Inverse folding.
């Protein structure tokens, strides 16, 4: 079978957590039936409260139809996601790592630095994720699609950040990431009116505070923020650590 143009990570990062989890349940319980490959698309029947007919495109994730309540309103439903998973995996078992959903950055709890090769791979992954956080200049009718792109970018970044070991090296990487995002918000034309990107940045600041408690060498990474004017003063807790140390 010809694989679609997207992969399991695209599905996971571009789908809200609840819908993704429900789709996994359908997939793992064999509810995707009568799967057939067409020219540039796939059809299937998903067994839910009733049989739902689903058709998905191979070239772009989410370009699909389903005759369920949500699908008829052009909303990405669990049936479409389940069939997309089937198309990507050809019915094979999902790996545990594919099912793990990270919606906000968390500390790995591990110490250490990245070697040269891993560091290069990490920077490429960050750059790839940042492409989803782009300027908005389209008509109002595609605003929700645009917000979905921001959410996907943040989900991808959250996953990357949560794998990092704690060190001065990675703290500097995170500070640089925050500055790049700040530039996008201030002068890059990003419409973050629902707070998706800003919320992520605030969570990374909290994470960096945790880094500093675990390894005081991380504090040196915050020195680059001293005297910097940001779009919503997210840097203040980190600058305070440089100036005053930790609150006891």
């Amino acid at each position: 079978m010809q694989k679609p143009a997207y992969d399991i990570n695209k599905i996971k990062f571009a789908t809200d957590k609840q819908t993704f989890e429900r789709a996994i349940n359908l997939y793992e319980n064999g509810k995707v039936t009568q799967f057939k490959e067409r020219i540039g698309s796939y059809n299937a029947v998903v067994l839910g409260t009733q049989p739902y007919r689903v058709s998905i495109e191979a070239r772009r994730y989410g370009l699909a139809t389903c005759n369920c309540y949500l699908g008829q309103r052009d909303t990405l439903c669990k049936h479409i996601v389940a069939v997309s998973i089937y198309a990507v995996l050809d019915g094979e078992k999902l790996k545990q790592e594919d099912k793990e959903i990270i919606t906000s950055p968390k500390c790995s709890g591990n110490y250490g630095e990245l070697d040269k090769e891993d560091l290069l791979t990490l920077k490429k992954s960050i750059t790839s994720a940042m492409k989803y956080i782009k300027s908005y200049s389209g008509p109002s009718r595609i605003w929700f699609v645009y917000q979905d792109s921001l959410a996907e970018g943040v989900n991808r970044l959250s996953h990357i950040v949560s794998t990092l070991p704690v060190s001065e090296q990675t703290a500097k990487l995170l500070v640089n990431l925050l500055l790049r995002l700040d530039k996008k918000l201030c002068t890059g034309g990003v419409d973050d009116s629902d707070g998706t990107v800003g919320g992520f940045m605030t969570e990374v600041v909290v994470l960096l505070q945790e880094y500093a408690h675990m390894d005081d060498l991380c504090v040196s990474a915050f020195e680059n923020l001293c005297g910097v004017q940001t779009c919503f003063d997210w840097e203040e807790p980190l600058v305070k650590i440089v100036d005053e140390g930790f609150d006891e």
Q: What stands out?
A: Residues 116-244 form one domain. The chain has a mean pLDDT of 95. Residues 143-162 form the longest helix (20 residues).
